[in-house]
Amino acid sequence: MGMLVDMSAWPVVYYVYDGPLSAAELKAYLAKQEQLIGRNKKYVVVADFSSGEVPPPAQRAAQADFDKRHADVTAKLCLGVAFVVPGALMRGAITAYTWIVGSVYPMKICATRAEAQAYVNEKLSAAGLSPPG
Fold first, then answer.
1. Does 84 have pLDDT greater than 80?
2. What is the mean pLDDT of the segment spanning 62-89?
3. How far is it, in rounded angstroms, from Cα 83 to Cα 103?
4. Distance (Å, whole) CA 57 – CA 64
5. Distance of CA 70 to CAs 3, 36, 131, Å?
6. Which H or E element spans position 82?
7. In whole angstroms, what is the distance from residue 117 CA to residue 12 CA?
8. For residues 80 and 44, is the Cβ–Cβ distance under 8 A?
9. How many CB atoms lie within 10 A of CB 88?
10. Section 6-16 average pLDDT
11. Regarding beta strands 107-110 and 12-17, do their DSSP bridges make them parallel or antiparallel, or are they unpaired?
């Protein structure tokens, strides 16, 4: 279980979540997010939550804290996030999270990875950047 963070297709970053993170996995994931914004370059995210369960409260709180502390830089660098969420329960959890915490970047909840990829490609094109490959 955990969160895969793949930056190999820059400027598209892929997150794949498959269940609650252990304390060590959460620390490693947040460190990857630090690396991501540390690049100081514009990017988009495809966050695939299609095979995971709703993150536990402590994990959501850690993410919310990270988001709040880095809101200014994320607002400048993140061109958009597409969440791949085919299930209603996870879709509701992500929607509730963004209502409570807010979002400093454009986002869309998508039913498929193809829909998510199309969304982030549009965001890249609008910013004058080319999708990878």
1. yes
2. 90
3. 13
4. 10
5. 19, 11, 25
6. strand 78-84
7. 9
8. yes
9. 8
10. 96
11. unpaired
Residue 3 CB neighbours (<10 A): 24
Question: 43-64, pLDDT tens digit by residue?
Answer: 999 999 887 677 888 888 898 8
Render pLDDT for 96-106 as a digit per residue (tens, 0 to 9).
777 776 678 89
* Tokens 């297709």 found at: 9
For 48, phi and psi rounded to 5 degrees? -90, 105
Whether the pLDDT of residue 29 is over 80: the answer is yes
Widest CA span in the chain: 38
Q: Can you give the pTM of this predicted structure?
A: 0.88
User: What is the model's pLDDT at position 50?
Assistant: 86
CA distances from 68 to 65, 71, 72, 74, 89 (A): 5, 5, 9, 10, 24
| Superfamily of 3-126 according to CATH | STAS domain (3.30.750.24)
Give me the residue spans of the domains in the chain.
3-126
